Structure prediction request, 79 residues.
Amino acid sequence: LEAVSPQQVLARGFSYTTRTDGGLVRSIHDAPAGTGLTTVVADGSIASTVVGKPAAARRRAADGSVDRSAGFDLFAPSE
Prediction:
């Protein structure tokens, strides 16, 4: 049970990101330019603001597979 605890998952390199209103960011559409974000990692959190347009959410390769690696074009640290 301890191995799958939220803190252990974060310790393995995972993180989660929320908007400043507390909503979880699950898609690029959840955080348009100007949105304040908090990303939680194992040893703390990182505040940022979205300053770029979202990249394409998904790109289809010639073989029909979906590239899920696209994300935001640019982040800037919060002041």
Summary: The two ends are 39 Å apart (CA to CA). Strands lie at 16-19, 36-41, 44-50, 59-60, 66-67, 75-77. DSSP finds one helix and six strands in the chain. The longest strand covers residues 44-50.
